[in-house]
Design goal:
- This protein is mostly beta strands.
- Helix content is about 15%, strand content about 40%.
- The protein is built from 2 helices and 12 strands, in the order E-E-E-E-H-E-E-E-E-E-E-E-E-H.
- The strands form 2 sheets. Strands 1, 2, 3, 4, 5, 6, 7, 10, 11 and 12 form a 10-stranded mixed β-sheet that branches. Strands 8-9 form a two-stranded antiparallel ribbon.
- Strand 8 and strand 9 form a beta hairpin.
- The longest helix has 11 residues.
- It is globular and about 40 Å long.
Length: about 140
């Protein structure tokens, strides 16, 4: 996956300084996953639109200037949420791609010459717990 500077249709969350970009087509569950992560302690960077840029050797994700402090819940509507500031991107979660391997090799998203861990996460159960564990326990070997 190639990331480009500017706005991306995605949701951004963070566990402390561990920024996570949740990507996928409309209806794949980006907001649902962000909300589930918030339920286990994540902060919301932004729902539905995230700004991507670099700062030194870090890829940074942040809410766009036009961001509203809300998250969409299908069937409920927009609910209030406090937005977190910019965070270094540590993980990209792709909800469009399914990982066929039980113990896959590492995948990476690339922004300029910078690389960040990418997981193909379609149909992974309890994904919010997986993301939290990656944030607090580090990236898996492989």
């Amino acid at each position: 996956m190639i990331l480009t500077r500017g706005h991306m249709h995605a949701s951004g969350i963070c566990f402390g300084n561990f920024g996570v970009l949740i990507s996928g087509a409309s209806g794949q569950g980006k907001s649902h996953l962000a909300l589930a992560c918030m339920g286990v302690g994540a902060g919301l960077i932004c729902d539905d639109m995230v700004e991507i840029d670099s700062h030194g050797t870090d890829i940074m994700i942040s809410p766009p200037q036009t961001a509203i402090a809300k998250i969409e819940v299908r069937g409920v509507g927009l609910i209030d949420a406090r937005l977190s500031g910019p965070r270094p991107l540590q993980l990209v979660v792709d909800l469009d791609q399914e990982e066929p391997e039980r113990l896959p090799k590492k995948h990476h998203a690339v922004f300029k010459q910078l690389r960040v861990r990418l997981i193909h996460a379609k149909n992974i159960p309890h994904l919010h717990y997986v993301i939290k564990q990656l944030a607090i326990g580090g990236t898996p070997q492989g």
